[in-house]
Specification:
- The complex is a heterodimer of chains A (271) and B (317).
- Chain A contains ten helices and two strands; from the N terminus they run H-H-H-H-H-H-H-E-E-H-H-H.
- In chain A, strands 1-2 form a two-stranded antiparallel ribbon.
- Chain A starts with a helix and ends in a 6-residue tail after the last helix.
- Chain B is elongated.
- Chain B has a six-stranded mixed sheet, with helices on both faces. In chain B, strands 11-12-10-13 form a four-stranded antiparallel sheet, with helices on one face. A three-stranded antiparallel sheet of chain B has the order 2-1-4, with helices on one face.
- Chain B starts with 6 loop residues before the first strand and ends with a helix.
- Chain B is of the alpha/beta class and 317 residues long.
- The chains are: A mainly alpha (271), B alpha/beta (317).
- The interface between A and B is medium-sized, with 27 and 34 residues.
């Protein structure tokens, strides 16, 4: 366990030393700011998305609306950018052989990388959500939020719901990250893995909007991006949240197990 | 099972499809050896070292380091072992010192306390704060040695450590290897440079197309190379007849105005007296020893493995 933690610490440090990470988190910061600036300058708004009508009532509504738009490809791309690179870049640089000839087991190295990817994913979601909250509150104030059931929720309670929602929102994103880590491990090619993970996310979205997919829709990864709606009903509806928990667990576990098994056995040679 | 021998491989084989990169390699490296793994480029030296370090899985056979198989025991088998294959690689966006810190944390026990010491040893302390991305090839090579020494290895595996270095860098690297060997570290060094191996190693394995064609002490190898004598005289024909009649002198050949023959030292001494008595003056009588290079080229069949294959197919036809 301490071995994994040591690897994890350095994986985070390596992410913090790479431009790619700041590119991803930078976009996650900029998008909600641009979004708020545009809405301040324009009239009209995203009235047909959840909470879109209340966006000028309180800054609390802003992150929810931004998350809705960013779930289609924005955050999947930001996630894939790092997840697809996390193993492949080390294959490419030849540093994998450097760290695998020390005293850490391959399993520990892989676990450290997977945890670091998860950390980055969570960070991207929170950076985007909290930036949206701050930017929105500066523009329209930190006021009570109108829930999806139409009732008012106090600002502090609304803030708690936002934090919970961000956590649940990060689950399907972690599913995309896991897929990216798998591609990164198997293909050893960073660009291919980033694109592949994004394609996976888009495919999940596409399946969800095609006619005739109603039966599988609740179990698609893309659907889980809306699970937080359950928190914004009064009383809270836990059904989508609980479903998101186990559905995403499967989408996270399957590619990670596959990648782990490949990583344990693979030949680390001039790739 | 504890085995004091730093390296033992038995039947070690790696195939990539039809290509046999390493073919039934049996190696034993004893404690304190500076072991040269010598062969032309593409002979399978790096692939063998990769299998020793557990980076790739042998198709057949096994490799053990101090009796432990990296395939079975993973990183634990690398206890007391350090080195690099195909040139050391580091994170270009981290400084030299930070790269070493990272690797120190990957060691068991963590080896951070030795960082300044090893940086000093490879003379990189002044540049330790700079990103490795800006390092020259020679500096990376030295950082590679520093990273290996962090682990306080009893066995050091170095893959072509002087490749790509300028002459001064090569000399420094060899001095360092000699110094480490002097401290009792067993060293396995792959190289395609004969004089390097000749200068540093006490034992060698010569590898060609994945196979070991000689393994043993360098001294013994060179001893087998003493192949005969050369004689020059103004009267080659008379001398040749005398040589043919002389006891203990064999393989007499006239070659380009010279005579070549073999015989032990006693017989050759007697020969010189006989030549003198017969009034045949000598201008030269020289023992011929093949250089390691000639031996090596003879054994590995020239330099090009493509040519080997072409020749092999001719034979097969």
């Amino acid at each position: 366990m301490t071995g994994t933690l040591r690897v994890y610490r350095w994986e985070v440090a390596k992410l913090l030393a790479q431009k790619r990470t700041y590119l991803g988190l930078g976009v996650a910061t900029l998008v909600p700011i641009v979004f708020v600036v545009v809405l301040v300058l324009q009239t009209g708004g995203p009235n047909d998305v959840p909470l879109g009508r209340y966006i000028r009532e309180t800054g609390l509504a802003v992150p929810f609306v931004v998350l809705f738009f960013m779930s289609i490809w924005g955050l999947p791309l930001i996630t894939a950018l790092v997840a697809g690179d996390i193993v492949a870049s080390e294959s490419h640089n030849g540093t994998l052989k450097t760290i695998l000839t020390r005293s850490r087991e391959r399993g520990e190295v892989f676990a450290g990388k997977a945890l670091a990817t998860a950390t980055y994913t969570l960070a991207a979601v929170f950076v985007m959500g909290l930036t949206g909250l701050v930017a929105g509150s500066l523009a329209w104030g930190f006021h009570p939020l109108t829930s999806l059931s139409g009732t008012k929720v106090s600002a502090s309670h609304g803030f708690g719901l936002l934090l919970l929602s961000l956590c649940v929102y990060a689950l399907p994103l972690a599913g995309i990250a896991a897929f990216g880590v798998m591609l990164s491990t198997i293909t050893r090619n960073s660009a291919a893995s980033v694109v592949g993970a994004l394609m996976w996310a888009l495919l999940m979205q596409l399946l969800g909007v095609l006619p005739g997919t109603e039966a599988i829709r609740p179990y698609l990864l893309g659907t889980q991006f809306d699970a937080w709606h359950g928190f914004l009903r009064v009383p809270a509806d836990w059904t989508p949240v609980i479903r998101a928990l186990w559905v995403c667990a499967l989408y996270i576990a399957a590619p990670l197990v596959a990648a782990y098994l490949v990583f344990l056995r693979r030949d680390v040679a001039g790739d | 099972m504890s085995d004091p021998r730093p390296v033992t491989t038995r039947g070690l084989t790696k195939r990539y499809g039809d290509l046999v990169a390493v073919d039934q390699v049996d190696l034993t490296v004893e404690q304190g050896d500076v072991f040269g793994y010598l062969g032309p480029n593409g002979a399978g030296k790096t692939t063998s070292l990769r299998m020793l370090l557990g980076l790739i899985r042998p198709t057949e056979g096994q490799a053990r380091l101090f009796g432990r198989d990296p395939l079975e025991e993973g990183a634990k088998a690398l206890q007391g072992v350090a080195g690099f294959v195909e040139g050391p690689r580091f994170y270009p966006y981290l400084s030299g010192r930070r790269n070493l810190r990272l690797l120190a944390d990957f060691d068991e026990p963590p080896s951070r306390s030795r960082i300044e010491e090893v940086l000093e040893l490879v003379e990189l302390r002044d540049r330790a704060r700079d990103r490795v991305g800006g390092y020259s090839h020679g500096m990376r090579q030295r950082l590679g040695i520093a990273a290996a020494l962090l682990r306080e290895p009893r066995l050091l595996l170095l893959d072509e450590p002087t490749t790509g270095l300028d002459p001064a860098g090569m000399r420094d690297m060899r001095d360092l290897v000699r110094r480490l060997a002097g401290e009792g570290i067993t060293i396995v060094l792959s190289s395609h440079l004969l004089y390097e191996v000749e200068e540093l190693c006490n034992r060698v394995a010569i590898v060609r197309s994945g196979r070991i064609i000689y393994e043993g002490a360098l001294r013994d190898l060179l001893a087998t190379a003493a192949s005969g004598y050369r004689l020059r005289t103004l009267e080659p024909e008379r001398a040749r007849l005398l040589l043919l009649a002389q006891a203990g002198i064999d393989d007499v050949r006239a070659d380009d105005g010279e005579l070549r023959f073999s015989g032990d030292e006693q017989a050759v001494a007697a020969l010189s007296v006989a030549l003198g008595k017969a009034g045949i003056g000598l201008t030269a009588l020289v023992p011929e020893t093949q250089s390691l290079e000639e031996l090596f080229l003879g054994m590995t069949g020239g330099e090009s493995s493509d040519r080997d294959r072409a020749r092999g197919s001719e034979v097969a036809v």
